[in-house]
Records
---
Amino acid sequence: MIDLKDIKKSYFVGDRELQILKGIDLKISRGEFVVLMGVSGSGKTTLMNIVGLLDKQTEGRYTFENIDVGGLNDETLADMRNRYIGFVFQQFFLLPYLDAIENVLIPIVYSKKGIKHPREKAKGLLAKFGLEHRVHNKPAQLSGGEQQRVAIARALVNDPELILADEPTGALDSKTGGEIMHLFKMLNNEGKTIIVVTHDPKLATFGKRLVRIEDGAISEDITT
Amino acid sequence: MALFQKISQLKEFVEEVIRILYYYRGRAVFSFSGVALGILSICIIVTTIDGANKKAQEIFEMLGPDSIMIFGVGEKQRAARIRTSTLKVEDADLIARVEGIYDLMRVYSARNVMMRYRDRNWQTLVIGSTTNYFDSLAWKFQTGVTYTAEDYANAGAVCVIGARVYDELFKDEDPLGKTILVGKLPTRVIGVLEERGGSFGGPHVDDRIIMPLTTVTSRIVNEKRYLSLVRVKTNRDLDRTIEDIRITLRQSHGLQGSLDDDFTLRSSKDILAFVTVISGSLLLFLGTAAVVALVVSGFVLANLFYLNIQERKKDIGIRRAYGATRKGILLSFLFESVLITFIGGVAGILLSVVLGSTFENLFDIPMMFSLKVVVFALFFSFLTGVLSGLKPALTASRIEPIEAIRG
């Protein structure tokens, strides 16, 4: 599904080149549960942005679902993100003016898949995560754990292959964080490919595979 | 199916924008009230000008598109308020012979004549005219009839009174057959005219009585030589007829070379031109005000939209991550701004309907509401929305998802 070959990424800070990723080779297949671990500044978020088609590498070749995404335009990339990837973020990023179910429905607005009965589907997902009584609440009326579950329902509504989660437990207490990680485990058991990016060593054991990033390169890649 | 999906997506999209506006309602209300004021003034302008034009058209119809008036006072004397007439009875006969003229109405008018009925007094304008007076002016009767050719020939003491005179002298009494004193002449009332309204700069048009010309010139004033006014209708070209009448009158009055006319020719065209000038300056004045209001509110809107985008960077990032294209972001922000100005536009139109009817009652300005006004106003509010929203929406569409999410 994901094939990264010698991916390099650098930014210019003034006229000094700052290399964030120094040649990453990584293959991730369908159905894997990967925890991408690294301290802040290691380049893990940059790597996730590239994997999630939100950012482009400076050098190297990235093949996603057998498509070389290097030369794709904005419109195609947006469509691919919509089709294949569900994003989950540390700060949930729910839209304050929409209630839970409308937040879940956001990807549908941009979808070309023709998902049938999206409203029922969104409701079903919320119910699956124990939020059937929160369907019409605004984000401000929900707890952190509830907000993150709404965000996960949003990531799933358009039937993506891949869930990309960037520090999904970072804003939650450890008990709630554990619940969220169990939820990812459950989704992985249902067949979703999951990548969780984190700096928290406690989460390492949840995945089937641990990839450690240090200073812009992979330092460890263990399948447990 | 694909179409159905498009429609439900569109519905979702529109509903979302409405929710956004509701969430940020404080700002939205502030934004659209500016637009509403601009649109309000545009509506008032258009309706007032339309109203003025309609009034002009009515005057035009009333006077007749083919009519020419000849006053026995030159332009300069008129300006100096000299009223001594130079229009002789023979002049009217000469004018009658000008080619194309098919109707000729003679008028001798006396101002400020005292009338009396029982204990009521009223000063009015007394018009002496030919029997075609009412037909020529297309002036209908509320009740009663016109004087006859016989009354005209015999200088009969009969009169038709205007609606205002009726109100002052008779109130609710039946006036037909009653005798009033016109100056010192006991006169029988035989008809009452319909109310016409307006004053056209002079005394109120309904404040007059009309009698046979012969009665006025022989029994009320002693004036056998001059007329105040001759009014003709022509079936020839208006300008050529006017020229012919001018030549005839100059000859009759012995005016040669560069001497000024000692009479004035007016056609309904002149009145129309006058109203056009008035509504033109109205347009200039009110139009400037409206454009300024719209431009200012456009700038205010643009600023608010920028602020909006700064605040909603994460919103944009999330949408981009979930598949919104640059174009999609551009369109949704643009739609938002157009919707705001559109609501403002509708509010402005409604306000102008309310204010318009108030104006109409207060200042006697006729207002003409039409589909044209609505289309015009909505077009301008749409334009304001697009112009003020385009740049901010472009900025929004250029925000990269990662920078927005990092925010």
---
Amino acid sequence: MGTIVGFLLAAVYAIIAVALFGSSPKASTLGSRFRECIGARARIGWIWRFIVVASSWLVIYYAFGSIVRPYVLPFYEDPDFPYQLVLPSARIVLVVQFIRGFIYVGSLTPLLVSLRSNLKELIMVMTGFLYIGGGLGIFVIVESFPAFLRVVHGLEIFADSLFFGVMISCLLRKPG
Amino acid sequence: MRGGDLPRVVAYAAIYTVIGIGLPLQQEAITVTHVAGLVVVGLLYGVLLSFAMGRMDVGRRGLMMTVMPAIFAIEYFNPII
């Protein structure tokens, strides 16, 4: 139920965002921008890039997760900790984060295709949407979570978002 | 941020905050800190939307039906995965 409400809200926010910020009429359609991008590189070139970027999420997630692990693990292992944090098994984390990489690429690709920006701007926009949507909201708004964990996990998610933003912008943008 | 977009950014933050307060998924008590958090996130979203949408070369239909819903859905994927 919560998921359905979430996706309906995403549609509502999209309408509000376009109503507020989508001002001047544009010449291109999303379909024409996709065709333009796909035509700029060989199909096989896009396929391996898509797979490398989506898979890189898992590597990035584990890299920064390993850095913060010593600081956050005591909270997860403390039975008296009132927030009942659960550390999933390595197998579950592996599968879920692998899928997440593909979901992120699927969500960000239409945005990447529709932007006419240089690399630096693409990285800023990709990182921004990933970070604000992917973690900042949760860690700023959910105030019952301890401040230390919010800061550490917030930094971890920022690093994840930045590195994934760099990967997707560098490898999946239209060449030239 | 595009020049002249400040009122739109503030409007977006206000709408985001109102929806956030009334969100059915909400399980936390509404406090001043909570509302301040929503305002901050709404403003950041607004600034980012202003910056990004000024650089998008796609018609409103593509933005409304595909690009923006996919972006906002990231926020709702996370609790699932």
